[in-house]
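Figure caption, in words: inputs first, then the predicted bound structure.
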Amino acid sequence: MTDSVEKIAADLAKYLRREQELGTSLYFNEGIINKEPEADQDPFIADCSDFVAKAITQITPSTAAELSLEEKTTQLAELNKQVAACEQCKLAPGRTNTVFGTGNPDANIVFVGEAPGRDEDLQGKPFVGRSGQLLTKIISAIDYSRDDVFICNILKCRPPENRDPAKDEVQACEPFLQKQLEILQPKVICCLGRHAAMTLLRDKSSLKDMRLKAQFYQGIPVIVTYHPAALLRNPNWKRPCWDDVRKLKALHDELVNK
Ligand code: SF4
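Bound structure (iron/sulfur cluster present):
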């Protein structure tokens, strides 16, 4: 086997593994298994490079002092206590547990979803049901684990029957998320679904439109993609989601390595 055939075989194995993890055959069918393409041969790579380059020029450096891991851990624990005691909206009486968020307090990437579901309410942890398992696979497909990132939601209590968050609930709960992000100081935020994106970005566009824009929350770049629950309902969105998380990784790597 020549080096290049070995490389193609290795790439093939890698993409098939990811394909299996994400539960779709699109990558194979659409030829993404090719050896690393030149930018002008793969529209996605060129588009991704443009997106990342544009996003980098628009980042507003934070003026806040950088917190140590210890400071972040302490401040998050204190905030978690406030969330656990919160009764500021009508979701409080129906919850089993508040769901503050989990992961690395020093994470460079923060995933923000919509609200806890039944499993999350029972366990007090975000994304532990079926959609959580898919999120774990998405994160591992870009070579990270849940321990590398931080995962939370807009709402910290479960809406009944998993209905959409109400405006007054979002308004009541959003200060907790704002404080969380202020403490975490991530390099990149990934919004999972339209509700998370609408809340953080104050943008009422369609998810499809929001996905394609370089957007920012307090100067931090935000990648918008589908909520994993939506991917379970419509597997055709897994391919665009895969493109989004590749952009997320490219942007993260560029910011961390510069
Ligand atoms: S959803 Fe948020 S604001 Fe409402 S009770 Fe729970 S923690 Fe408080």
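The longest strand covers residues 220-225.
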